[in-house]
Amino acid sequence: MSTSVRVAATGCYLPPDVLTNRQLIERLSLDVDEAWIESRTGIRQRHWMAPGQTTSDMLVECARSILAEAGLEPRAVERLIVATVSPDHPSPSTATIVARKLGARCAAFDISAACAGFLYGLDLARGAIATGARNVLVLSADARSRYIDPRDRRGAVLFSDGAAGALVVPSEQPGLIEVVIGAEGLEHMGAWIPAGGAARPATRETVDAGAHYLQVDGFREIFEQFKAFTREAVHSVLERSGHTLGDVDVFITHQGNAFLVREIVADLGVDPARAIDDVARHGNTSGATVPIALAEARASGRIRAGDLVLMTSVGAGWTFGAALHRF
Fold first, then answer.
1. What H or E segment, with its residue span, contains residue 60?
2. Cβ pair 11, 69 in contact under 8 A
3. 4, 26, 163, 236: which has the fewest C-beta neighbours closer than 10 Å?
4. Are 185 and 168 contained in the same domain?
5. What SS3 class is residue 19?
6. Which residues make Cβ contacts (< 8 Å) with residue 151, sequence separation at least 6?
């Protein structure tokens, strides 16, 4: 049995409700204009879930598109890994809800690694296949619109919703060449939700204080941490695989902010023509940004057969990772 693995199919789901900057300003009564938003984030529009829609709903639609590409029925899935920090409920896992809605019956669980969650999922899929699994579905989704504080214009203009993922299968030739993941817990976590967990259960007081909303550190501080961890992950995955940045055909980093993407590209010395930048259309979908970019690049022909793709991301906490895949 081969223990090499590859991504056999990809897919994504973006809610149909698209908000331009002007529509967002009007909906939330923000005291900024369109130029203010675009000059600070590079975002022109974003997707938000409709009322009543859930993270698991997005994941199910995404999973169906992946399985359709692969020509598989849900019952063929042997592992279902969901990376999210926007679960339907604190308990049980969103993955079990997705399995029920999808009609799958397999090992199903969530992982919480923020914006690096998809890369963590790829590493887990590689391990599952090494121990005998065949079809491993790695999904990532976040519903950040549900956690936006309308009084915090920095967060309100940045975050959005979406889901994406990949089917990972055994392969005779290495597709997924190398994955590196890591974490370093720091006092300043980058982004966090103060209340609603065991450390600070939700109460009337926490809700009145807005402690159940997403809070974000200063962007300059985040940028510097992000660049440092990205540099570490990228250099590690290239060294382990015996490749250089010059070998990479397509570079995908976390699509958190257009200016962050450009800083990462410049810091690493990546050719900008080889880098994906879709922040303007989708905003920051947290853990879903990298797999959305991957799925859309494959669907559009941006990624072609034989291309070497480097994916990297950094998440709150801090988590980080990088993966190198030959398509």
1. helix 55-70
2. yes
3. 26
4. no
5. strand
6. 210
Mean pLDDT of the chain: 94
Write down which residue in 139, 173, 207 finishes a domain: 173
Q: In the numeric block, which tokens belong to residue 2? A: 């081969």
- Same domain as 250, residue 146: no
Predicted TM-score of the model (pTM): 0.95
In whole angstroms, give the CA distance from residue 224 to residue 219: 9
Q: Which domain holds residue 267?
A: 178-326
Q: What average pLDDT does the segment 76-90 reach?
A: 97
**Angle between helices 289-300 and 117-130 in degrees, nearest 10:** 80
For residues 24 and 83, membership in a common domain is answered with yes
Buried b (16+ CB within 10 A) or exposed e, 114-150: bbbbbbbbbbbbbebbeeebebbbbbbbbbbbbbbbe
Tokens of 299: 């669907």
Note whether 306 and 326 are within 8 A (CB): yes
Q: What single-letter DSSP state applies at residue 159? A: B
Residues 67 and 166: beta-carbon distance below 8 Å: no
Q: Which of 77, 176, 71 is CA-nearest to residue 130?
A: 176
Asked if 152 and 187 sit in the same domain, the reply is no
Catalytic residue set: 115, 254, 284
CATH assignment of the domain containing 144: 3.40.47.10
Q: What are the Cα distances from residue 318, in Å, to 67, 245, 251, 285?
A: 32, 24, 21, 17
The residue among 13, 130, 110, 142 whose CA lies nearest residue 68 is: 13
Tally of domains in the chain: 2
Measured CA to CA, the distance from residue 304 to residue 260 in angstroms comes to: 26
If pLDDT is split at 50, 70 and 90, which confidence band does 190 have? confident
Q: How far apart are CA 178 and CA 325, in angstroms?
A: 7
59 vs 67: CA distance, rounded Å: 12
User: Containing H/E element for 313?
Assistant: strand 308-315
Radius of gyration of the chain (CA): 19
- List the one residue out of 181, 134, 138, 146 whose CA is nearest residue 3: 134
Q: Which amino acid is at 172?
A: E
